[in-house]
Design goal:
The chain is an all-alpha fold and 425 residues long. The protein has 24 helices and two strands.
Length: 425
């Protein structure tokens, strides 16, 4: 069968193996060939296990075959890997590393071939993970970029992590080679060990914005004292993607909020020219759970030039703040906002998880309902109020929900009745 690419794959014949091997080797291989024709996969693997093995200086077991017989045996194993059922694929996957590093070229060709069954490529990732080779690392990164199969993506990522430190030195050397620089940075970003921090820090100030973005995203997953200053500096990068990644990363470090004055650094990004940067800055400020961050979010929400789509994100961020001041601000915006923003505020109030704030959020919705002419509210608003009061589950909402249960709109009635059932007896 064919498993090679258009480039000829060359195998190195071990010098210690004589050209003429005992006839028993050929008999074993012939037995395997017959078993393949009969699709007797148990016999195939049993035949291959009869082939002579030796241990290297590193105590790694390898098959002892000359070049010709090595190819025949390898072809048997690959045929089984492609055609056998899952259980026998699993068995041959454990055996294939005995063929040594010469299997890397043909297997990397197979794993990148989209015409090959995803399950086979999944097993090949496992096999390649046994070899600490930069070729394997780059192949896995290419696979992550090209495939859309979720299980294959997960396996390729796990394999990269398992290879880990042994591939880092090789990848750092590749950073100096322009043709491999991008793939090397991508590879380092997938290997989440502390040894990658130093090379990624250097890439974080590279001339290429795409490389800086990858490095900042990867560095954001490390709680290392060298990283936060780089992230803060990246908030002012000329590239919007870099600013966005830095904002995302700092959002996961609320523990540094006071020491590094993160709110002051993140607030200007709420007014960034790139809307996605603004959104991520809002999310990160919401995660700070601080009054100053909440005030910054509210100021942006009140600003007339703020697009409606961003206002919706700011409302969500205020809800995530989980502090009383944020609910006060949301109450203020309920009165003079567009219907879309008003509905979002009502929905966000219904998602408040803090027990000590649920009553406050409930009272905001009740007051809003009582202060307005009920018929002014469109059905979507009335339905949202009913749903949120039910989610908050406070007994004080019973009267309001009872009124909504008599609504002229059938959907509003149903949501109100459902909400009443959620209230404590």
């Amino acid at each position: 069968m064919k498993y090679e690419s258009s480039d000829r794959v060359t195998y190195i014949k071990p010098e210690t193996v004589p050209d003429q091997l005992p006839s028993s080797i050929k008999e074993i291989l012939n037995l395997g060939l017959t078993a393949v024709k009969q699709k007797d996969w148990l016999q195939v693997i049993n035949s291959l296990r009869l082939l002579p093995q030796t241990k290297t200086d590193d105590q790694v077991k390898l098959l002892v075959l000359n070049w010709k017989n090595w190819q025949v045996a390898f072809d048997l194993a690959v045929t089984m890997l492609i055609q056998a059922d899952f259980q026998h694929k699993w068995e041959i996957t454990k055996f294939l590393p005995l063929f040594g590093e010469n299997i890397i070229p043909p297997l990397t060709t197979l794993v990148k071939d989209e015409n090959v069954e995803a399950e086979v490529r999944w097993f090949i990732c496992q096999i390649l993970g046994q070899f600490k080779s930069e070729t394997v690392v780059l192949t896995l990164v290419e696979l992550l970029q090209q495939t859309s199969d979720e299980e294959l993506i997960v396996m390729a990522g796990k394999t990269l992590s398992r290879i880990g430190n042994s591939a880092i030195d090789a990848l750092v050397k590749l950073l100096a080679q322009p043709e491999y620089r991008f793939l090397a940075v991508q590879s380092l970003s997938y290997i989440r060990t502390s040894e990658t921090i130093e090379p990624l820090l250097k890439v974080a100030t590279a001339p290429e914005s795409e490389l800086r973005s990858i490095a900042i995203r990867a560095l954001g997953s490390f709680h290392d004292p060298r990283v936060p200053p780089i992230l803060i500096a990246a908030l002012q990068d000329t590239s919007s993607n870099v600013r966005k990644e830095a904002a995302i990363a700092l959002g996961f470090r609320p523990d540094l909020c006071h020491d590094l004055n993160l709110i002051t650094h993140l607030q200007p990004l709420l007014y960034d020219l790139n809307l996605e940067v603004c959104r991520q800055a809002a999310v990160s400020l919401g995660r700070m759970k601080q009054k100053a961050a909440t005030t910054a979010l509210f100021a942006a929400l009140q600003a007339d030039p703020t697009p409606v789509s961003l206002k919706l994100d700011l409302v969500k961020a205020l809800g995530w703040s989980e502090i009383s001041l944020a609910i006060d601000y949301l109450e203020q915006k309920l009165v003079n906002s567009s219907e879309l923003v008003t509905q979002e505020i009502i929905t966000v109030l219904g998602r408040i998880n803090s027990q000590k704030l649920k009553h406050q959020a409930t009272q905001v919705l009740i007051n809003f309902w009582q202060d307005k002419n009920h018929q002014v509210f469109p059905p979507q608003i009335r339905q949202a109020i009913a749903t949120s009061l039910g989610e908050l589950g406070c007994q004080c909402a019973q009267q309001t929900l009872a009124q909504l249960a008599q609504d002229e709109d059938r959907k509003v009635q149903l949501h109100a009745l459902s909400a009443l059932k959620k209230l404590p007896c």
